[in-house]
Amino acid sequence: MRKDSRIRQIVLMGLFIALEVILTRFCSINTPIVRIGFGFLPVAMLGILFGPLWAGICYALGDFIGMMLFPSGTYFPGFTLTAFLTGLTYGLLLHKKNITYPRAFLAAVAVCCLWNLCLDTYWLYLMTGKGIMVLLPARLIKVAIAIPIQTLLVPLIWNKYLKNIIY
């Protein structure tokens, strides 16, 4: 890899991490058990551009940096693990692929159901001591809202705005 392309990669990763922190911390609806926002967009773009490992690392860094700079409760490393797995999933499903609505739907379902609904609910159960069945209704509503939004926005933003600028 050429030095200038490595620098370009680092700069783009830094920009997407910063954008993720801003969208997650300032452009989201937050409750103690649900966050609805647009922080998934930079993570999906990282997955498309750089693949699973880098997307996972960048999202985990973004989660950690965002929590340290703008805490919204107690830091819990489980959520950073979820962030890593989310980036990994976007990278596995979107990197070096044609970004279509069906592919975005598959990525959204995987991220929302596996990581946001199952794993994050488990982390909240460990943190709050509330039963999973108490947490589940609000989290199901979040997933029902998030899947169509992610399915629509990931291909739209990538294909219409970013693909031609970045490549």
TrEMBL record:
It comes from the Bacteria. InterPro entries: ECF_S_folate_fam, ECF_trnsprt_substrate-spec. Keywords: Membrane, Transmembrane, Transmembrane helix. One of its GO terms (molecular function) is transmembrane transporter activity. The keyword Cell membrane does not apply. The chain crosses the membrane at residues 6-26, 38-62, 74-93, 105-125, 131-158. The keyword Protease does not apply. This is Folate family ECF transporter S component. It comes from Aminipila butyrica. The lineage of its organism: Bacteria, Bacillati, Bacillota, Clostridia, Peptostreptococcales.
